[in-house]
Amino acid sequence: MGIGLFTYYQGRSHDLTLPAVIWVPLILLCSFCDRILRCYRVGMLSWKPTLLVLPVIILLSLSVATPIMRYDRIATGMKNTWNGIVNIGNLNPTEDRVRFILGCAGSRQEVNIYGENQGIYYAETGLRAGIPNFNRIYLVMIKDKIQIFRELEQSKLPLFVSVRQGNLPDLPPPILINYRLNAVSPDKTIFFFEPLTATMK
């Protein structure tokens, strides 16, 4: 199983796939720490090897602390998921979001879309991307983010920010300062911004 998970991660080495494969090493680490503590308790080991348990405790503590610190986003995501299960009247919300984007874009054929499912929205709307070959999921390196943020900051095209949980993603304040929020989709998953320097045709 470990070889299979490593092969999967090696083929798709990305931060988003790490949680899917890291659970096996965590189980092994906990088992390893348990064995060290048991051996220390019966006198088979000195106290020095028990120091190896400390980094694992810190790692597990941080793993628990992170969800607690972001409880608001987790609660919003659970609420949105529940609403999607209960309100089954609209089985394809993507169609409504595509209509929202097209309605806000108007006659303009080139826009910037940043966030969740941006590739789907470009494909379904037929609109061109203002920043070629840009997909948020590939923004792993800090230098890549800086480059994209710089281009968004200087762009004069409309900006659609797509989110999953109703909160704006990690866009730096300098970008949002250059835009004006014009509309929000009914399900609060797409925010439509107009650049302040744009000349409306």
Fold and architecture overview:
- This protein has helices spanning 2-11, 18-21, 23-41, 53-69, 71-86, 93-105, 118-125, 142-154, 173-177, and strands at residues 110-115, 128-129, 159-162, 179-184, 190-195.
- With 201 residues, the chain is α/β, with parallel strands linked by helices.
- The chain folds into 2 domains: 2-69; 91-195.
- Strands 2-1-3-5-4 form a 5-stranded mixed beta sheet.
- The longest helix has 19 residues, at 23-41.
- The protein starts with a helix and ends in a 6-residue tail after the last strand.
- The model has no long low-confidence stretch (mean pLDDT 80).
Distinctive features:
elongated, five-stranded mixed β-sheet, 201 residues, 52% helix, 5 strands, alpha/beta, 2 domains, 9 helices
Q: How big a fraction of the residues is strand?
A: 5-15%
The tally of structural domains comes to 2
The count of β-strands is 5
Low-confidence stretches: none
Q: From N to C, what is the helix and strand string? A: HHHHHHEHEHEHEE
The overall average pLDDT, rounded, is 80
Question: How much helix is in the residues?
Answer: 40-55%
Shape: elongated
Q: Sketch the major β-sheet.
A: 5 strands, mixed
Radius of gyration from CA coordinates: 23 Å
The helix/strand class is: alpha/beta
Topology:
Layout: H1 2-11, H2 18-21, H3 23-41, H4 53-69, H5 71-86, H6 93-105, E1 110-115, H7 118-125, E2 128-129, H8 142-154, E3 159-162, H9 173-177, E4 179-184, E5 190-195
Parallel strand pairs: 1-2, 1-3
Antiparallel strand pairs: 3-5, 4-5
Q: Quick recap of the structure?
A:
The chain is of the alpha/beta class and 201 residues long.
